[in-house]
Amino acid sequence: MVVAFINDKILSTNLPETFTARIISNNITIWTGGLPIAKPKIEYYPEFAVLTGIKKLNGSNPSDLWFYYSANGIEYDRKYLQWKHGSNVYSFEVLKIIESYYFSGNACNVICHVSPVWMPLNYYITIVNDNDNSILRSVPYLLDHDLSSCIDLPVPGDSPSMFWIRIKELSLFNVTSVKFKVHIKGEGIECQRAGQKSIQVGTSAPTNNGQCSVDSDIAFCKHVSHTTNGTLTYCDVECVCMDLLKCSNVQIVMQSANRDPWKLCELDLNNV
After folding, report:
1. Which CATH class is domain 124-271?
2. Domain chopping of the chain, boundaries
3. What is the pTM of this model?
């Protein structure tokens, strides 16, 4: 298994591996041989990547090719790749947030003919004051549709002192409407803009310096529903904009006034 770390570009390595066999008689090795092992070459994104498709070279026709991808490097989903006639890009209907991937198929198909189309996760999402990207690396757990994979939210005394996520590209959620809902699910959360566990959701136009004031630059969205199911609380917020440009950044700010533990388990957006 070969792991390639990726920063600004994909690092391609193709190191050979062999299986060594021996024949032993009377505790003496009388034959040793090596056989090549077919193995995947795993590409690893330390800060996660958002995959939009798989591109093939003009004139190539790779076949029997599977694409395996994972958000945690342990559990892999797979997709059989078939390109539409006249298209060089296999596009995913739902964008894939991945930590690692590999192809399974003829080696030359992979090395010579195909490459992933991707952008780093922080092109779509940033976390305010997350200087080491430790919170950003937990974001895939909020988008995996698994309510058991929750993250702890900050309380007074933590750094950063609030959870402030900025969604900069709504295409990550397939949102194309000027009216959409934000769904927030968690433990110990409260569906209100002010209180012990506040949630503020709003929209803003893009900013050149990445800075935004929660007091003046954000048009707040409306909390429309609040339900509970056991220990989980579901908050639905509706946002309406004049045009998509003014909705291009969605800001979600969650802040606690006490040190009681609380968790965020799922975050989703959809058109209305």
Report:
1. mainly beta
2. 2-122, 124-271
3. 0.77
